[in-house]
Design goal:
- This protein is an alpha+beta fold and 131 residues long.
- It has three helices and five strands.
- It has a five-stranded mixed β-sheet with strand order 1-2-3-4-5, with helices on both faces.
- The termini are close together.
């Protein structure tokens, strides 16, 4: 579910590596222990510095038979290609993966990055949309 074993190519490699590099730059300067919203603000500054096109707190509705049934807000949509969801804690949970998968499904984007700022560094998971 999380990795497409049939595909030999990496989806958006240069852009995703740049995003991850920005996350490490944020961690290297701020360190651990801050609320998620501070990491989000810092990452936005770093993305601007690196001239990476992004939108913050992107709204995507969930509709059923043309009626709104849910609202989704992504932390970042990078270059209209990659959904980025930030977390803070010492591990990923199943709900983090499920959340990003929902975002990929509703937005019809191919790739999501789950970035976790932990007490020991940055953890990153690449999630492919297989829907």
């Amino acid at each position: 579910m999380y990795q497409n074993k049939e595909s030999k190519e990496v989806v958006f490699p240069e852009l995703s590596y740049s995003i991850v590099g920005c996350a490490f730059e944020v961690y290297n300067e701020l360190g651990s222990g801050f609320p998620e919203k501070y990491y989000q603000k810092a990452l936005a500054i770093e993305l601007k510095t690196k001239q990476i096109i992004f939108t913050e707190q992107v709204y995507f509705p969930l509709e059923f038979k043309s009626e709104l049934v849910g609202k989704n807000y992504f932390d970042f949509l990078i270059d209209d290609k990659i959904v980025v969801e930030l977390k803070r804690g010492n591990h990923f949970s199943k709900s983090h993966f499920d959340q990003l998968l929902r975002y990929l499904k509703v937005s019809n984007k191919k790739l999501g990055l789950l970035i976790n700022f932990t007490s020991e560094g940055v953890q990153v998971k690449r999630i492919l949309n297989l829907y």
